[in-house]
Fold these 4 entries.
Entry 1:
Amino acid sequence: MDKSTPTDQWIVKDRNDRELAVVYGETFGEAVDAAIEETGFMGGFYVRRLRVSEIEERQK
């Protein structure tokens, strides 16, 4: 698998670029729902897909 391939894991960050959580979702909508459930926030955050290389780096 290419290291730049997106995964079904999403990173959740706040407006100050602080990591709040890592959630799972096959779609953007599922990721947002999971982020709301995980953080308790209804807004003020963003989600983006993690790439294979980022996940491997986190596991070190």
Entry 2:
Amino acid sequence: LWYDTGLLHDLDYDKFPDAHPNESLKWFGEWKYPVELIGAISAHAFGSKRTETPPKTQLDFALIACDELSGLLYAYSLMRPTGFDGMEAKSVKKKFKDKAFAAKIDRKEIMVGVAGLKIGLSEHIKTLIEVFQEMEELRK
């Protein structure tokens, strides 16, 4: 369920960026996807975005915590000659604090997810770095 949620959460973004994720939420309902998946995808667009579903579950907070941070980590990996290899949470936190770096990344959203998971930002960054380091397709 968690993998599918992460994989599908931006399904409608390319065709419907202004309505995202509402189009895919309709589809998931029609296709009888699990309510937990639908809820997490809806919650990841809560607040200033386009839904009124506040995050409640661990899945909701995990998707929120990982979504924007994944973009920041990927942007940072592109700057580095070794990509994710040798990347450290400490250097990522410096980039996180630099609002000019990956300026469209919503740092507040990341912090909402991290707080909901009851983990520290450094720990979360370290975990995601380790996940990305294991992915063959992200190796330089």
Entry 3:
Amino acid sequence: MHICYVDESGTSVQNNSQNTSHFVLAGIALPITNWREADRVISNIKQEYGLEDTTEIHTAWILRSYIEQRRIPGFENLDPEQRKMETRSIRNRKISELSRD
């Protein structure tokens, strides 16, 4: 027996007011005997990045390029708290600049 997970992104209807340029349907199937181990691995990844176990992980978070991060020299070498602090600093400066306009 296998456990299957299927998810979609975008819209498949051409004349839809929320029409997107792409529709993606993807899935994964794993043997039921591997389910607990896969769940444990995912829980460990969430814990490593400070996410609650109930948090849904979105691929876009992983694939998206974050402009603020690219502007921070040595971002990859910073610990999670330093990353947050530097990113917030850049965002706050940008908000301040925009509020002056």
Entry 4:
Amino acid sequence: MQGKLLVLGLLAWSWGKSLAAAEWQQILDRGFLIVGVQENNPPLASRNKSNELVGFEIDLAQELARQLLGSRDKVKLIPLKNTDRLEALWHDRVDMLIAQMTVTGNRSRLVVFSPSYYTDRAVIIYPKTKLLKSLARPQIAVLHQSSNISVLQTELPQARPIGVSSYQEGFTALLQGKIDGMILDGLAARSWLQTHPQIALQTTAHFSSLAVALPQGIQYAELRQKTTKAIEVLKSEQWLTDRVKFWQLNPVEYK
């Protein structure tokens, strides 16, 4: 109950204060978007050898800046931890989130989602030397505040969830034998499967949509409308399809 009151209090506070980084006219006056992203989740968003942010979601943030403000350069990217994403949006540190935000019913009560820009599938990775279903109480890593927590409860109800702060933390624990497996989005599993042949994959029946997360409230309506229209244009013009191919996001290994 206290958690619900805290969420409601945060929302009421963000609605009522003078906004620093949210309303459309203020964004126009500022001259650039502020977008919350990730920085350790290839191929969606990571840093290259030059320490530059690159990836499918980085391309999307830059293209939205072009669609909304006329230039791909008119965007400031703010790297965020998984647990900090919603708070950054509520506290007006960012105008929107393009940070592997999975659309869920609970989150839809806290933010407004754009049309989906990608559909992924949850998977469980584990050492080939183990049979997860034969273990009485397998310890499975899951990202804090991830929608995959409920997926794990459905797919492997006997599992003991182990919260981790990042996929890398979970994968390191898996390689060290501290846990039996990890549930994560298929895209995040791909690079590890390619470089670690000792790791096996179990698909789940859960598909999830990724979308841009935007703040609630009538004062944000124009930003939401423009973002929605821009995503729809990128779909109709096949821009999203082209970037999916460029970043090799098609999950062919686990369809």
